[in-house]
Write a structure and sequence with these properties.
Length: about 200
């Protein structure tokens, strides 16, 4: 085999290997955040939303997510789960602040019938001074929930003290990037801070 023929064969093999990699990888670029994830995230999560803030103003995701944000869907009448989770998120935000990272905790109500702008504003302010409280119409809340693939279902509303069943994930969203990962209830503030810092650092590279 001549050198030219050998070189041509080598190029063909490399092209074939590259093509196989491109196909098996789905043609997608390497995940810049792979080192930060604890598991795979299936499907598309997150996206545009339009809700109402504590001042009664209609805001979009672009208005709210101006820096790395931890988004939680819950409701102000929640007896234990929501207060625990949102305080945990606030603790993670404080740990990150100590390291020089600025992160916003966001609370989205999935109980628009009771959670007025004042209600989400008071709830959020009691949890953390930076926490953004959001509510909206039933349609706005449903659209935001569907974007983040959350679940909620109100119990018998004839009882004024009705409870709302809901999922309890916290979503990490970065400006210009969007959703990057989620945290389960078992995650500690320290674990959340560590992983969030990893994502922020990776996004800056």
């Amino acid at each position: 085999m001549t050198r030219l023929a050998a070189l041509s064969a080598s190029v063909a093999i490399l092209a074939l290997v590259g093509g196989v990699w491109f196909i098996t990888s789905g043609g997608k670029p390497e995940d810049a955040f792979a080192q930060c994830r604890q598991g795979a995230v299936a499907g598309e999560i997150g996206g545009p939303f339009e809700l109402v803030n504590a001042q009664g103003q209609t805001v979009t995701d672009a208005d709210v997510i101006t820096e790395p944000s931890l988004i939680y869907f819950g409701y102000t009448f929640c007896p234990d789960v929501c207060p625990f989770d949102t305080v945990r998120n606030a603790d993670a935000v404080d740990l990150l602040a100590e390291r020089g990272y600025s992160v916003t905790p966001v609370f989205v109500s999935i109980d628009p019938d009771r959670d007025t702008p004042d209600a989400v504003g008071d709830f959020s302010a009691n949890i953390h001074p930076k926490m953004v409280g959001l509510t909206g119409s039933a349609e706005q809340v449903k659209a935001a929930s569907q974007a983040y693939r959350t679940y909620y279902n109100a119990q018998d509303k004839s009882d004024e003290y009705y409870l709302v069943d809901h999922s309890t994930f916290t979503y990490l969203v970065l400006p210009e990037v969007g959703f990057v990962d989620y945290f389960r209830r078992e995650a500690t503030p320290q674990e959340m801070a560590d992983r969030t810092a990893c994502f922020i650092d990776a996004s800056a590279q």
